[in-house]
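dumping this here so i dont lose it
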């Protein structure tokens, strides 16, 4: 039986009060298997980012439960949840979120420092080479292109070998060629290191690169499309 990395049951989230309530996510059930590449696709306002935030423990659901490697997120204290995210989840956002005063190498190593762990320089070297950052490791974010900054963010996100990588519109600020290059890097990392990825996108062409496509409409999970059905 394939390992389940992340799962949720009857997940729901409401914003607003009384007549102004918006059901952002409604009754979502998911089981994400280890080593698979999943893409959540849907129109703007469909609840994609909210669902990702709920699954990552960045927001608390109003109903339902989320488990990571069998651990129920709602049962954790804020400190324990932050520790779990830091050690077992990786995050890549549209706006990179690099610290401008740190070099590429220092940004990538930041999770080790926050967790007070010894830096794994062998793994760092592998990441720099895999993402074509070796020649850029001593540069600062302001000296990088958008694609180089996003590759740095990816390297930082997987520096602690997370159980799952969350990517929220990671190509949103990139041109078509750079987007294709970044997606190619993600696919190579996914295949080579059996990395589980959950990527949010509005671009069907990007979603087709995943193993499964999850279609979200008005906060409801409508379709789970397998690779051989695309």
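and the seq i came up w/
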């Amino acid at each position: 039986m394939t390992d389940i990395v992340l799962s949720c049951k009857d997940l729901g989230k409401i914003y607003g009060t009384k007549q102004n309530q918006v059901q952002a996510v409604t009754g979502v059930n998911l089981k994400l298997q280890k080593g698979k590449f999943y893409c959540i696709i849907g129109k703007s306002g469909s609840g994609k980012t909210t669902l990702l935030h709920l699954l990552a423990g960045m927001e608390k659901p109003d109903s339902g439960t989320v488990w990571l490697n069998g651990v129920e997120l709602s049962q954790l204290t804020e400190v324990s949840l932050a520790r779990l995210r830091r050690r077992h989840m990786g995050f890549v956002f549209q706006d990179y979120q690099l610290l401008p005063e740190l070099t590429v190498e220092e940004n990538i190593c930041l999770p080790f420092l926050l967790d007070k762990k010894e830096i794994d320089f062998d793994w760092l070297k592998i990441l720099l080479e895999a993402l074509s950052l070796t020649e850029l490791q001593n540069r600062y974010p302001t000296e990088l292109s958008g694609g180089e900054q996003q590759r740095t963010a990816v390297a930082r996100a997987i520096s602690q070998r997370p159980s799952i990588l969350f990517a929220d519109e990671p190509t949103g600020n990139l041109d078509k060629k750079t987007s294709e290059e970044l997606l190619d890097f993600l696919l190579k990392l996914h295949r080579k290191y059996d990395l589980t990825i959950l990527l949010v996108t509005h671009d069907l062409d990007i979603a087709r690169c995943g193993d499964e496509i999850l279609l979200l409409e008005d906060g409801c999970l409508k379709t789970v499309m397998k690779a051989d059905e695309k």
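Strands lie at 4-15, 22-33, 37-41, 63-68, 71-72, 89-92, 164-168, 197-201, 212-217, 220-226.
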